[in-house]
Amino acid sequence: MTSYERRALYRFVTLYLGSVFALLAVIGYLFFENNVSMMKSAVKFEMMDQARKLSSQIIFKAMSGEQIQPEVYLGGLNRSRFEVGYYDAKKRAFYTQIPDFADFDLSFSIKGGSYYTVLEEPSGHLGVHYIILKEGRLTLEMGALRIKMIRYLILSFILMGFVGYFLGRLFLAPVHEKIESLDRFIDDTTHELNTPITAILMTIESLKGCDAKKLKRLEVSSKRLSLTYDSLTYRLRENNKESFRERFSFTQLLMERLGYFKELIEAKKLTIETHVDELTVLMDKESAIRLIDNLLSNAIKYNNLDGSITLSIEDGRLIISDDGIGIDPSVQKEIFKRYRRADKDRGGFGIGLDIVLSVCKQYDIGIDVESERGKGSRFTLNFRRVKA
Prior knowledge:
This protein has a five-stranded antiparallel beta sheet with strand order 2-1-5-4-3. A five-stranded mixed beta sheet has the order 7-9-10-12-11, with helices on one face. The chain has a two-stranded antiparallel ribbon with strand order 6-8. The relative contact order is 0.07. Helix content is about 55%, strand content about 15%. By secondary structure, the chain is of the alpha+beta class. The chain has helices spanning about 5-65, 70-75, 140-205, 210-235, 250-260, 260-265, 285-300, 350-360; strands at about 85, 95, 110, 115-120, 130-135, 245-250, 270-275, 280-285, 310-315, 315-320, 365-370, 375-380.
């Protein structure tokens, strides 16, 4: 799976899981609130029913004519799971398991996580005018329900994450096949081009006595073709290639590659200015070559006739600037994407800067672009993390 496919898959899964989480959260919240409401209603009904039963027992006992002590009788009356309190008309307790109760005017109330029911008895049998019931377990039951809902939500989220991942892979499969087919086509094409490109370059080197302009034109064209071939083959090998890091002079390599571009530079009559300090790096040399070649190639390709290019290495940074056509601000964020080109009129496959960004990410090289349409571009690479 390529980096673009992985990025697309991660975006799909993130969006999918975000939507699933929001949906599950809403459903879970509504389910929880509905259950809490039902639990409260059930407890309220049960408490009122129990209070009426206690009231009936008190009335029956009062009408029986037996001589009893109300405090003793009331203390042994309750057999339910609720705590109970019995109060007279002045709200003084005969017997209570609920100390400091004061909300006699509310038939049902919630305080401190406990639920209270007040049943008023105007007849005052056995002197009881108020029966108070307290329920303290409902809050714990709701807390247990909340924890259970969160667990189900997390499990559902994980399950949907697996589903989303495999759905994403399934949807990307046709795209992956197309990309593989395109890569195979490019691989086969570049393989077939290798031999004739090598033969052309060797033949040009051996030619003598030919027209200098024609020979120069052949050298420029063949090197452009060779650079394109090198970029394509590097791009295809990148995912399967293990990078071999070595210590070498990046400054020396830059000057060597600048010599390789001599014919291309002379063909556009460009002026080259260099200000380079010594920079030694620890990285794969082929990757460094691709980094230099693609930046130099773009600086030449998108420059104007009789233009100029400035190369500088200072404080661990490589700066390549030109006074060419520049890059429009609206497309500057797109130029590092594969097959994207800032200017379609000047050719290219749109893979050069994609390779540059890939190498920078691999070696943690900072990259910055400054450009203005019609005034040129400036690419800055920070090698401080790979300096040897």
